[in-house]
Amino acid sequence: MEFNVPFLKPKSVDCSDLPLFDFEKFSNKESIENGGYGAVFTADFHPHGVGNPAVKLVVKKMLGEDLEDKKNFVKEARILQELEHPNIVHFEEMCSTPLALVLEYVYFDFQPFGINLKVSSLAEFVATLDSFNCEGCDSPHIFSGICKDIATGLQYLHNNDIAHRDLKPVNVLVSNQHYCKLSRVKIGKAWKECPVVCKLTDFGESRSREVHTQSILKSQTNCVNHGTPVYMAPEILVDATRLAVATIEDMKRDDIWALSITLFVLLNPCVKYPYQREIERATEKGQTSHQYGVR
Fold it and tell me: In terms of Cα–Cα distance, which of 254, 191, 201 is closest to 228?
């Protein structure tokens, strides 16, 4: 009897319900960030064929082969697909081979202000302002607009029974694309009316009452201590008060804590480690084993 050599192939996840895109159609890929979980880069796509104007997009490519990670990656795409709001990053499509999310490219261009630099996150934006003598960049209407955008985006998520679970400055995108290529006169007017637009991004840790995987209950999770420690509420971070199971409503309240710390960091960029002493005391008492960090 002839012996058939077994053929092994990675387990796959079904994403046929999502709009799919051919990864090979991207060109001019430029890396933004690389990590153990995946790679993020910008890429050009020519919707009307090569030779016609290109659209620059952000591609978040998964590198690992863990099945649960793949399920959560597709879950993030399904959550994003259901969202349509000016303060939420726009989901374009999904690539199945390799597994990748395709998102709108959001950036703040400092060129109108005399600096040849583009940044994407609120963390980068604040760090840039903090490193220059920026006359007029500390105007209250700038920060009030940023706060309003973040809060409005979060309110939209919560109204749709979605908890972000990892809200922090690095997961808030900033943009001035609505005026960065206008004339000086029009830029001045737009700066006064709406200097920065913010959009929430990175829904890898998010939970939705409707979108879930087989390993995650619809309205609750046992994995309550996910996120960045300084942005986690005490009932999530500290062992003595940690919830055994967190519902969507519990996770929404944790988002509110993360929002408050995000706004604190925004208004106090020189304070690199807010609540560090409190967290260190909790660690010394054996109440939490988390490493402190802020981004």
Answer: 254
Give the C-alpha separation, 10 to 24, whole Å.
20
Q: What is the pLDDT of residues 45-98, one digit of tens each?
A: 988 777 778 899 999 999 888 888 899 899 999 999 999 999 999 999 999 999
Contacting residues for 50 by C-beta, under 8 A, at least 6 apart: none
Question: Which pLDDT value is given to residue 10?
Answer: 66
* Residue 257, phi then psi, degrees to nearest 5: -60, -45
- Which two three-digit tokens encode residue 165? 């679970």
**Interatomic CA distance for residues 113 and 274, integer angstroms:** 30
The SS3 assignment for 185 reads: helix
Who wins on pLDDT, 261 or 2? 261
Average pLDDT of the residues in 162-190: 92
Q: List helix spans (H) across 24-165.
A: 67-81, 122-130, 140-159
CA atoms of 253 and 251, how far apart (whole Å): 5
**pLDDT value for 246:** 79
3-state secondary structure 228-294: CHHHCCHHHHCHHHCCCCEEHHHHHHHHHHHHHHHHHHHHCCCCCCCCHHHHHHHHHCCCCCCCCCC
Whether omega before 98 lies within 30 degrees of 0, making that bond cis, reads: yes
- Rounded to whole angstroms, what are the CA distances from 274 to 12, 142, 148, 271? 42, 22, 22, 6
User: pTM for the whole thing?
Assistant: 0.84
Give phi and psi for 199, each to the nearest 5. -135, 135
Contacts of residue 85, defined as CB under 8 A and 6 or more positions apart, other chains included, come to: 153, 156
- pLDDT at position 232 is 82
Contacts 24+ apart (CB under 8 A), 211-214: 211/75, 211/78, 211/79, 211/82, 212/75, 213/68, 213/71, 213/72, 213/75, 214/71
* pLDDT higher at 295 or 44: 44
